[in-house]
Amino acid sequence: MPDAPVASESEVEAPEDVLPINGTDYVEFYVGNAKQSAQYYAHLFGFQIRGYLGPETGHEEKVSYLLEQNDVWFVLTSALGPGSSISKHVHRHGNGVKDIALAVDDAATSFEETTKRGAEPVQEPTVHEDVDGRIVTSTIATYGDTVHTFVERSDYDGLFFPGFETWENEVWEPPSPTDLQYVDHCVGNVHEGDMDTYVEYYAQTMGFYNMLHFTDQDISTEYSALMSKVMANGDEKIKFPINEPAEGKKKSQIEEYLEFYRGAGVQHVALGTNDIIDAVRELRRRGVEFLHVPDTYYDREVLAERVGTINESIDALEELGILVDRDPDGYLLQIFTEPVQDRPTVFFEIIQREGARSFGAGNFKALFQAIEKEQERRGNL
Questions:
Q1: Residue 3 and residue 128: Cα distance in Å, rounded?
Q2: What is the DSSP annotation of 277-345?
Q3: Is residue 70 classed exposed, middle or buried when 0-12, 13-18 and 19+ CB atoms within 10 A define those classes?
């Protein structure tokens, strides 16, 4: 399968850089039981439980746990009653990503610049203060019920956010980390015909550009297909692939997601690592379940012709089920977990980049075959 082409001149052109972004601040998940979810991510993925927010800290309607590993911050939030927007979100979508928060220098300006260009406002600039300083946030909407919160925290020296306290457990023995270093990208699934709408939305409101475009010829198997465009900010610290289903013989993975998530939303979060072999070996040992790719993927002659020389052992990649691909800038290694909740919706990607800027186009067929095998087991193909 050829590498996906760089977006042509006919793609949406990014306007001036109206939204300087310093990176992903945090990803917030709305979940049914934040306490148990925090333990899951700690024991299986190696996150440290750093903070807690709830009735004991002055918040009577919800609880949140702050999880940290290197530059990855997850916030797991649950409602304490049936009538809140959090409980309604979980009832509709199951456990899922609510907020992909973006670190900015000026949350008020970010809100003003994006909303005047057409972004849907959710929360106007708001100051949050405690004895450790102040944080300013503002929020805009994106696909489905997902939002982006702009976070300005240069004047804050506290743990994470006003209302959070250090989480303490006298008998807790924190598990060791698993070398998950940063959020590489977050992928959204939208309904057929909506992809270009959100491509335009990110371009016009946030100044993103279409760095890659995958057609249904690039991403397809015998049974299903999808199309995808990758939106990125100027320095590519933030990358948002957006998928929509394409016509196929059977139900695609995107259609299955949309059916069970009951709408558009974040399909997966990709976490970068410095050593994917050691990371995946440890994640597997702890019980993280990964998709199984066809054994034929590791044909040494075919793989060598497609990706050339790499530093990692092909035997180790085959043992662990890790995929490898190359683009003009280098190569990458990647692997995908199975869904991390009962609904076949949100999952994670573990990725190691050795110069590559792309997303593993050469692995799409093997990946889709693995996903379709799981769909067939669920009776959803």
A1: 46
A2: HHHHHHHHHHT--BPPPPGGGG-HHHHHHHH---SS-HHHHHHHT-EEEEETTEEEEEEEBPPSSSSS-
A3: middle
Residue 112 in tokens:
């003003």
Same fold yes or no, 23-166 and 180-378: yes
CATH architecture of 180-378: Roll (3.10)
Mean pLDDT along residues 168-191: 93
Walk across the sheet containing 347-354 and list its strands: 209-214, 225-232, 239-246, 180-189, 265-273, 347-354, 330-336, 323-327
Q: What is the pLDDT of residues 248-301, one digit of tens each?
A: 556 678 899 999 999 999 999 999 999 999 999 999 999 999 998 888 888 888
Fold of 23-166: 2,3-Dihydroxybiphenyl 1,2-Dioxygenase; domain 1 (3.10.180)
Rg of the chain over CA atoms, in angstroms?
Answer: 20
Residue 15's CB is within 10 A of a number of other CB atoms, namely 14
Of 199, 101, 201, 84, the residue nearest 148 (C-alpha): 101
**Cross-strand partners of 330:** 327
Query: Residue 104: pLDDT above 50?
Result: yes
Burial of 118 (C-beta count, 10 Å sphere; 0-12/13-18/19+) = exposed
C-alpha–C-alpha distance, residues 147 and 96, integer Å: 12
Separation CA 209–CA 155 (nearest Å): 31
Every domain of the chain and the residues it spans: 23-166, 180-378
Both tokens of residue 285? 């040992």
Q: 213 pLDDT exceeds 60?
A: yes
DSSP code string of 16-48: S------EEEEEEEE-S-HHHHHHHHHHHH--E
Tokens linked to 351? 């990725």
- In this structure, what token pair is assigned to residue 299? 């044909």
Q: What is the pTM for the complete model shown?
A: 0.91
CA pair distance 248, 245, nearest whole angstrom: 9
